[in-house]
């Protein structure tokens, strides 16, 4: 069981304790604070080769992807750059299959923060 599955179970269990009004507030919080799927896919398509979508999701190694891309273009004259560029392009394609799970994780994290905020407000009243 990975962290996303555990987080999903925690969010599901915590949502059961909320009233309908609080659940609506959590839904609004998620819509306003989770990563936008449109933004994620547009960044992947147009700037993904530089790792821009990874910066959006706060994923590690985004800078490494950008560095490999730059090194690849600088050394392409020596043919060595093709290896770097090939690695980045493969990485870029693999990321396309990861975006959906990253979006799910972003929504769950936003829901978790929204639930915590709702519970804090509930305890103040």
Automatic annotation (TrEMBL):
Keyword set includes Transmembrane helix: yes
Keywords, comma-separated and alphabetical: Membrane, Transmembrane, Transmembrane helix
Entry's transmembrane regions: 38-56, 68-94
Name listed for the protein in its UniProt record: TM2 domain protein
Source organism of this protein record: Apilactobacillus kunkeei
Organism placement in taxonomy: Bacteria, Bacillati, Bacillota, Bacilli, Lactobacillales
